[in-house]
Automatic annotation (TrEMBL):
Name of protein: NADH-quinone oxidoreductase subunit B
Cofactor or coenzyme needed: [4Fe-4S] cluster
Any one cellular-component term (Gene Ontology): plasma membrane
Quaternary structure (record): NDH-1 is composed of 14 different subunits. Subunits NuoB, C, D, E, F, and G constitute the peripheral sector of the complex.
Membrane topology category: Peripheral membrane protein
Family recorded in the similarity comment: Belongs to the complex I 20 kDa subunit family.
Pfam families: Oxidored_q6 (PF01058)
NCBIfam families: nuoB_fam (TIGR01957), PRK06411.1 (NF005012)
Protein's organism: Candidatus Chlorohelix allophototropha
Protein encoded by which gene: nuoB
EC number: 7.1.1.-
Length: 175
């Protein structure tokens, strides 16, 4: 957006206006997977006040959410459910991988934990830490807001380029 030096007039584009609205009202899907979710809940509380960024409205229905915060480790059994929530969210939509476990499996380097949620959903922002504190999640929010405002496209969907990884919802487990 730009303002006239003589005042009274603001010019912008439709894209800028839409992106401004999107980044100012990110509504996260209401779910948590492990200990990182406790920090995510704290971020929504009065002390950290996620409402400052327009993101305090956690929605219990994916149909009403445009942001997925993957807060915690994703077990192989949970992976299809996480993917289903993502698919049920209307676009445009974004994903934050919160913490080491969601980003790369963390300390759980074993067959039961998905070694990075970017194997099943496209991740826009990774937040480091075990767990990341609320300030770190808020920084992730602001990074995502800047990307949305700049019109940065979402990363490619892993379902489209690594079908051998995600086609088996049990990730090779037989039981
Ligand atoms: S990154 Fe640490 S705090 Fe977060 S889910 Fe994994 S073990 Fe728990």
């Amino acid at each position: 957006m730009s303002a006239s030096p003589v005042g009274g007039m603001v010019t912008t584009t439709v894209d800028n206006l839409a992106n401004w609205g999107r980044k100012s009202s990110l509504w996260p899907a209401l779910f948590g997977l492990a200990c990182c979710a406790i920090e995510m809940m704290a971020t929504g509380g009065a002390r950290f006040d996620m409402a400052r960024f327009g993101s305090e409205v956690f929605r219990a229905s994916p149909r009403q959410a445009d942001l997925m915060i993957v807060a915690g480790r994703v077990s192989a059994k949970m992976a299809p459910a996480v993917r289903q929530i993502y698919e049920q969210m209307p676009g445009p939509k974004w994903v934050i991988a919160m913490g080491a476990c969601a980003s790369c499996g963390g300390v759980f380097n074993n067959y039961a934990i998905v070694q990075g949620v970017d194997l099943i959903v496209p991740v826009d922002v990774y937040v480091a830490g075990c767990p990341p504190n609320p300030e770190a999640l808020l920084e992730g929010f602001q990074i995502l807001q800047k990307k949305i405002m700049a019109g940065v496209p979402n990363p490619p969907d892993p379902m489209s380029y690594a079908p051998e990884v995600v086609s088996d919802p049990n990730f090779g487990r037989t039981r």
